[in-house]
Each structure stands twice: as structure tokens, then as C-alpha cells.
């Protein structure tokens, strides 16, 4: 049985890309102390939980998703003691912290991989997915080979410097002796090593993990059955030792992840969710042009929602380090309406740092640490109008990623003082969500319309709220609406004699 941490019921997460958040030692790279320094800012916004992208020792070929040492904070970010202090300071403020766990692969510089490359057998020989011949590559996966005396090819995830850890094959091919079962010694040792890593950081004060590509661990995995069983094994361990540790999966299939023991699952920006139909396509649904469509998203969401047995534990982020910024396709008014949707859906919402002020995608940047097209979404947080937008006192050329050079770039300080700003709207919406149990993580949802406007009903703890989201720049009317308007975004609405009139580029919430 999965034990649900109570704090997830009203959690609103803030995702922090540590490299680009706040630099306190003037080296051009954000650090752990910089996050601690800004906890009050995050708290004042209304977010009560944080997800920190990988902050462990790494050669940074993939921005930290290529881990060299799971037990050590990367020196450029600080020390383990700095991270423990961050946990403590967050807890003092009633906040919780998730670390980013990367269980599927390591860096080629990890000591496990260095040992696995040796020709003679040792305890790490089977820690990774190796074939038994340099001339044989793993089916359906890229590989690295010819790099050591060991005769074999090693499967990789994503980049060629990310060797795949071995959790076994759900159905090993009997003609390929190198394909190990989940119960073989190597895969079992890998799983126990994963538990040890989790045990270490949970004991240090972490509140749980966001798990990178959680559904990809077991190979040749029929309908995810092997990976589900693996995570059920982890859940059993957590229930015994850390029953209140929160687990959020990057899986994209909530029916599988929740059965596996996760509390929540992300809708991914790729695959069948149609998430990008809303925000990032040629005609986004949230564009005021009104040429987009939410229909396929709604149908996919309803299907996934049903598969979670009505738990609704599906996280919809504003964006993340792998996506274009919202502001690349939406203007400020459109983002207001988009946030009205994001912050009133079931599951915990996730706000990517800077999205609350409408930070832009920085165009035409040279790739930084494996970012490639994603680099433009990883620019430094814009805190104020001072030197380097308040991110760092280093020389501009030392910054991890160049800043948005626009003279009118948004910043947190200015928007915090402006009651009409996007940040103030986001803050108001978070507060609105927290004051109304129907709008929180576990409240029910029923879609009433998937066109323009998007209409859905949220229910919870005896409360019922109808949400009417109208991105299109056109006034519309809805008949037979009963109740009172309790919150509006954008250009407003009126409700008289059962007729709701909502203006274009607006959202309205009616308590029924």
C-alpha cells in the first residue's frame, strides 16, 4: 500500500535549475546557498515545495543528469552540509524539498562504470547493461564500445556518455546470454544501490524524490510490468523506513506509476498526453487567436484520470528545463489565463523558475552542457534590474548561460511590487487554490466543455467550483450557471439570472 504524505494534498512546487538560480560566490554558476537565500521569495509567492534538478557531482555533459557520485553535492554548488542546511531552512518555513533522482544511468566517470569496464570480473561487472561481444549491440539501444579491455558493448541512455544501469530484462532472450533477468545478482545489486542512495538523502533531510524517466529501467519490459514490480519493491522499502517520503515520477503513464507506488506522475511534453497542444505548438490552445484545440488533451487526461482510479494525481507543469519557456508562444495576458488553468487542476502544480514572471526563451544560444535547443530555457533567473539581473556579481562572460539581453526583460523585484504583474496574478491564484479544498491536489474533476471556453467542475470537501477558462479574445456566454463568482483572471465576467458572460482572454471561477 502506498502511504500518501499529507503535505502533498496542497503542495505547489517550484522547480529550481540550480545552475541558473542564484550565484552567491561570484563564479557565474548558481549554488545551494543561493537557493537557501531565496527561500523567502519562493514562500512569499505561495509555493510550499521545491524540486531541485540534479545537484550531485558530475562532469556535466548533460547538465548534471550524468551523475558521477550520487552521495556528494557537486563542488560548484557547495557541500553536503549546504544541502542539509537548505533542507533545515525549508522545513522551518513549512516547505518540503524533492531531489532529482537519476536511476537509469550514470556518467562514464562514475567509479561503478570504471570498474565495470575491466576485463576481470568484479562486483560492478554486471552493474550496467553490457553485451558479451564488442560486435554485438543491445537491441533497440545505442551503445559505447571499444573503450576498454572488456569484450562487449555497453547500452547507453540518451547521450553516448550515459551508460545504462542494469536492472535486468523482464523477458531475457534465451539466445542472448548477456541479457540478465531482474532476479540475477547484478540487477539486484543495482536495485539495492538505488535504495542506499535514497536512504542516504532521506536520512539527511530530503522529503522525497522526483525520479527521472522512472518508467525506463527494466529492459524488454512488456507493458511496464517489470519496472512496476521494481518500484513496488522500492515502495515496500520506503513504507518500512521512510513512509512519508514523497515520490513523483517522470513516467507519463499514471496508471503504471501509481500502481508502482508513486504518489504523482508528470504529464510529459512528448508522447500521447497532448500537453503541448495547450502551450507549445503553432496554434496553442491558450493563444487569444482561438485557433487551437484542447479536445485531444482533455480526452487523454480523462483516460489517464480514470486509470488513477479517480485519484487525479497527475502533475501539469508550467514548463521545465527540457521545454521552451511559456513566453516563447504566449504573451502576458495569455500566460495569465494559462496559469489560471495550471493552478486549478488536480495533482500538484509545478512552476518552473522564472515562469511566474514570464521569463523568455533566449534565442540562438550555443549549447551549454548538453542543453542544445533547451539552452534558451535555462538562462539565469532575473531577480532585479541590477548587475546581471541580480543573478551574479561575476563578469557577464562567466555566467552559466547568457542572460536575456532585452532591455524590457521581466524581473522578480519589479513584479513583486506591481499588483497588476504576472507574478502577482500567479501569487493570487496560488492563494486562491489554497483557500479552496476543491481546487487542491485530490479534488475531483469533471470536464463540461473542451472547446472555447474550457469548462470543468472541481469538487472536494463539500465544495463545488466551476472553472471557465476563455483564452480566445472574444466574449462568450454560458447559460444555466448557478452560484457566485469568487475569482476572475483577465478582463472579467458577470453572472446574472443564471447567465455567465465572460470576456475574452479571461478566466472565472464560480462557487456552486
General description of the model:
- Belongs to the glycosyl hydrolase 13 family.
- InterPro entries: GH, GH13_cat_dom, O16G_dom_2.
- Residues 15-433 form the Glycosyl hydrolase family 13 catalytic domain.
- By secondary structure, the protein is α/β, with parallel strands linked by helices.
- The protein has a domain at 443-511: Sandwich (Immunoglobulin-like), CATH 2.60.40.
- Helix content is 24%, strand content 17%.
- It contains 12 helices and 20 strands.
- An 8-stranded parallel β-sheet has the order 11-10-9-8-5-2-1-12.
- Helix 6 (225-241) links the parallel strand 8 (208-211) and strand 9 (246-249).
- Helix 10 (332-342) runs parallel beside helix 12.
Query: Distance N terminus to C terminus?
Result: 35 Å
Overall body shape: globular
In the CATH hierarchy, the third-tier topology of the domain at 443-511 is known as Immunoglobulin-like
Specify the number of helices.
Answer: 12
Q: Which CATH class of the domain at 443-511 applies here?
A: Mainly Beta
Gross CATH architecture of the domain at 443-511: Sandwich
As a whole number of angstroms, the C-alpha radius of gyration is 23 Å
Q: What share of residues is helical?
A: 10-25%
- Low-confidence segments, given as residue ranges, are none
- What is the CATH H-level superfamily of the domain at 443-511? Golgi alpha-mannosidase II
How big a fraction of the residues is strand?
15-25%
Structural class: alpha/beta
How do the strands line up in the largest sheet? 11-10-9-8-5-2-1-12
Amino acid at each position: 500500500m502506498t502511504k500518501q504524505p499529507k503535505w502533498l494534498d496542497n503542495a505547489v512546487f517550484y522547480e529550481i535549475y540550480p545552475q541558473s538560480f542564484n550565484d552567491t560566490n561570484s563564479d557565474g554558476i548558481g549554488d545551494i546557498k543561493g537557493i537557501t537565500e531565496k527561500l523567502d521569495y519562493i514562500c512569499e509567492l505561495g509555493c510550499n515545495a521545491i524540486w531541485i534538478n540534479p545537484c550531485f557531482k558530475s562532469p556535466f555533459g548533460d547538465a548534471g543528469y550524468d551523475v558521477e557520485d550520487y552521495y556528494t553535492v557537486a563542488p560548484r554548488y557547495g557541500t553536503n552540509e549546504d544541502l542539509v542546511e537548505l533542507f533545515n531552512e525549508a522545513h522551518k518555513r513549512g516547505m518540503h524539498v524533492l531531489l532529482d533522482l537519476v536511476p537509469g544511468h550514470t556518467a562514464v566517470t562514475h567509479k561503478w562504470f570504471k570498474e565495470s569496464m575491466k576485463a576481470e570480473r568484479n562486483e560492478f561487472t554486471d552493474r550496467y547493461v553490457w553485451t558479451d561481444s564488442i560486435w554485438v549491440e543491445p537491441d533497440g539501444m545505442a551503445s559505447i564500445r571499444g573503450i576498454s579491455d572488456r569484450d562487449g558493448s555497453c547500452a547507453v541512455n540518451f547521450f553516448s556518455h550515459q551508460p545504462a544501469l542494469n536492472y535486468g530484462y523482464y523477458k531475457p532472450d534465451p539466445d542472448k546470454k548477456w541479457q540478465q533477468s531482474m532476479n540475477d545478482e547484478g540487477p539486484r545489486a543495482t536495485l539495492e544501490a538505488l535504495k542506499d542512495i535514497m536512504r542516504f538523502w532521506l536520512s539527511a533531510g530530503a522529503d522525497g524524490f522526483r525520479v527521472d524517466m522512472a518508467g525506463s529501467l527494466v529492459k524488454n519490459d512488456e507493458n511496464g510490468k517489470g519496472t512496476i514490480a521494481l518500484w513496488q519493491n522500492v515502495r515496500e522499502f520506503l513504507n518500512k523506513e521512510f513512509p512519508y517520503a514523497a515520490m513523483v515520477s517522470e513516467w507519463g503513464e499514471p496508471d503504471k506509476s501509481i500502481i508502482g507506488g508513486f504518489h504523482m506522475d508528470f504529464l510529459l511534453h512528448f508522447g500521447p498526453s497532448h500537453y503541448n497542444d495547450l502551450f507549445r505548438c503553432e496554434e496553442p490552445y491558450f493563444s487569444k487567436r482561438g485557433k487551437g484545440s484542447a479536445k485531444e488533451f482533455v480526452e487523454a487526461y480523462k483516460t489517464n484520470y480514470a486509470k488513477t482510479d479517480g485519484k487525479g494525481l497527475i502533475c501539469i507543469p508550467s514548463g521545465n528545463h527540457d521545454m521552451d519557456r511559456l513566453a516563447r508562444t504566449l504573451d502576458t495576458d495569455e500566460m495569465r489565463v494559462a496559469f489560471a488553468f495550471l493552478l486549478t487542476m488536480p495533482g500538484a502544480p509545478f512552476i518552473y523558475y522564472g515562469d511566474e514572471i514570464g521569463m523568455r526563451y533566449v534565442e540562438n544560444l550555443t549549447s551549454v552542457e548538453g542543453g542544445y535547443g533547451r539552452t534558451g530555457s535555462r538562462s539565469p533567473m532575473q531577480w532585479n534590474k541590477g548587475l546581471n539581473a541580480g543573478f551574479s556579481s561575476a563578469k557577464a562572460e562567466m555566467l552559466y548561460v547568457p542572460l536575456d539581453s532585452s532591455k524590457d526583460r521581466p524581473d522578480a523585484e519589479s513584479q513583486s511590487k506591481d499588483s497588476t504583474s504576472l507574478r502577482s496574478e500567479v501569487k493570487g491564484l496560488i492563494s486562491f487554490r489554497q483557500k479552496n479544498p476543491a481546487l487542491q491536489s485530490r479534488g475531483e474533476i469533471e470536464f463540461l466543455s473542451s472547446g472555447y471556453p474550457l469548462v470543468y467542475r472541481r469538487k472536494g470537501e463539500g465544495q463545488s467550483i466551476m472553472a471557465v477558462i476563455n483564452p480566445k479574445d472574444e466574449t462568450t456566454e454560458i447559460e444555466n450557471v448557478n452560484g457566485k463568482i469568487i475569482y476572475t483572471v483577465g478582463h472579467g465576467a458577470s453572472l446574472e439570472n443564471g447567465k455567465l458572460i465572460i470576456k475574452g482572454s479571461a478566466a472565472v471561477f464560480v462557487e456552486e
